Amino acid sequence: MSAPFSFTASRAARLMLVASLPVLISSVAVADEEGEEHFDIGVWNDSGVLRTGGWDHDTETLEVADLRVYEAHFGEDPGFPFAIDEPGIGGAAADVGLPIGATLSLNLNSGLRIWNGNGFDDDFATTMFIDYGPASIDSQTGGSIDFLIADDYDLHPIYSIDPSSIAGSYLLEFNVSMDGYASSESFWIAFNLGLDDEEFETSVEWVEGNLVPAPGALALLAMAGFGSRRRRNA
Q1: How confident is the prediction along the chain (234 residues), in pLDDT tens digits per residue?
Q2: Has residue 220 been placed in a domain?
Q3: CA-wise closest residue to 99 among 50, 154, 39
Q4: Do the domain assignments include residue 226?
Q5: Distance between start and end Cα atoms, the chain
Q6: How many domains does the chain have?
Q7: Do the domain assignments include residue 56?
Q8: What is the DSSP letter of 23?
Q9: Taking the C-alpha atoms of 52, 58, 63 and 66 in order, what is their torsion angle to the nearest 10 degrees?
Q10: Cα dist from 187 to 2, 21, 108, 115, 208, whole Å
């Protein structure tokens, strides 16, 4: 059951974090330098239905067609321990079947939840924020953020958490929508705030096993055209 929204956000904490956003260093470089596997949210058109997969920065391809759980780790940049710009939304319009110039909406579908060792509980004491340019939503009130689909796009909203939050694995549920297409199924982002890596991975596995339906035939990419490299503008 998705957690309902309530309104108890700490405005002072949010203002402090947002003030630091213009100088936030992308964690993409950190992940790539460490050789870790990283996927952005790769949205693609499946005969008029939006699907989410894994877009790979290094290969510039949609490596996984059906992906519905993503990971993020606060603290990868020590200068910004409570903010991160991963996962992004990446792709190439021609490769994923989306129209250039269309508006893609990222919709927050549930309030924040925290890992209890055996599942996730609603967390009304903590607030997470998602900012992209002037647009902002939070886990207390919900909402949507719009992105413009370009020929070659790599979009990174800023996810931030109240600095007074306790260590843990935090979970948010989203979907994406676009005019003229059926909305995607729900997907989840698990955020690690100072939790032991093994325990965090246990929480991610719980999401995969309990919230995500069994994978279908599209679990691994096997569709022509999606393996081509993303075009770069000169």
Answers
A1: 455 444 343 444 444 555 555 444 443 434 444 444 679 999 999 999 999 999 987 788 999 999 999 999 999 888 899 999 999 999 999 999 999 999 999 999 999 999 999 999 999 999 999 999 999 999 999 999 999 999 989 999 999 999 999 999 999 999 999 999 999 999 999 999 999 999 999 999 999 999 997 654 444 444 444 444 444 444
A2: no
A3: 50
A4: no
A5: 47
A6: 1
A7: yes
A8: G
A9: -20
A10: 12, 25, 10, 17, 10
> Tokens 């689909």 — which residue?
149
CB burial of residue 16 (10 Å; 0-12, 13-18, 19+): middle
CB 207 within 8 A of CB 70: no
Radius of gyration of the chain (CA): 17
Give the separation between CA 109 and CA 2, rounded to whole angstroms. 8
21 Cβ contact list (under 8 Å, min separation 6): 83, 131, 158, 160
In a domain? residue 120: yes
Length of the chain, please? 234
Backbone phi, psi, residue 207, to 5°: -60, -45
Q: Which residues contact 3 (CB under 8 A, 6 or more apart)?
A: 110, 111, 112, 113, 122, 123
Q: Buried b / exposed e across 77-116, counting CB within 10 Å, b at 16+? A: beebebbbbbbbbbbbbebbbbeeeeebebbbebbbbbbe
Tell the burial category of 201 from Cβ atoms under 10 Å away from its Cβ (0-12, 13-18, 19+).
middle
Tell me which residue range forms the domain holding 73: 11-210
CB 191 within 8 Å of CB 172? yes
